[in-house]
Amino acid sequence: MPGPIGLIGFVYIQVFRALSVYFGIAAAFGLNFDPITAGVISLTLLNSAYMAEIYRAAIQAIDPDQREAARSLGLGGIATFVNVVFPQAWRIAIPSLVNQFTDIIKDSSIVAVIGTPDLMYVMIERVSFYQRPFEFYTTVAGIYLVMVVIVAQLANRLEKRLQRHLV
């Protein structure tokens, strides 16, 4: 059984993984969020829960002997985490974090459903007005593709840079 902080983290992750702020919490508690606020809150809560899981898994992947060795050298708990555990966990987490960042880009398109004026919302308006769905859908798909490729390329450079320090 995890400690109190682990339990709070577990509950947070389980609740916010499938949360709809605009239609769920706002309706349940009588709150009136504008679409942009609801979209930002929803994406933040959802993705922070996933990222917490990524970091938790990466930290747990570090061999406990690493912590023990750091402690035997006289490092305290915080110094052990900052100097030994986190640098290794960061390298482990990068591929999953990149995947999560690309998911954030793709998830941002869903906020158009609640009327947030994002790329998809504007595209839907233009398709309705100009009646040219192929051109607009293709353009927006290209924009999303470019954004995802840029994130992937930046992550690739970061991974190579971090690998250089392992040699």
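(the above was protein one; protein two follows)
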Amino acid sequence: MNRTLGTMLRVVLKKNLKMWEECLPHVEFAYNRATHSTTKVSPFQVVYGFNPRAPIDLLPSPTTERTQSDASARAEFIHKLHETTKTNIEKMNEKYRIAGSEGRKEIKLEPGDLVLLHLRKDRSKLIPRAAGPYKVIDKINDNAYKLELPPEFGVSPSFNISD
């Protein structure tokens, strides 16, 4: 969202960088009116049940000009819209979960197993990239393990499974 709003502000402002505060409400309205790929509707539609054409459409109409509408039908419409939005979000979350876990191997280690420890890039290029093998002392959780390290390492013995 921040990247999108930043891009929209750059497009609207161009060379007038000192006017960004004045343009922010217009950019915010445009963002909230745009259809989002996850929900398949705009944030305005989720909240208000319609997509306003201008900011003035969001103001309540005077009581003398209000049209009569069936409140239960309106509530049912909003309820169905929220259910559809929730379903769309759940579908996209599942899609992202599948794409994110594609190609990953689940590794389970037990105390006593021997492992190589990957050393981070902040070390010198002449130092080896991996050290070990070291014995797994304890399983903290599925992603973290405690290793039996030599005292000269001077670091915490707990490591993420990715290391």
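Reviewer note on protein two: The radius of gyration is 27 Å.
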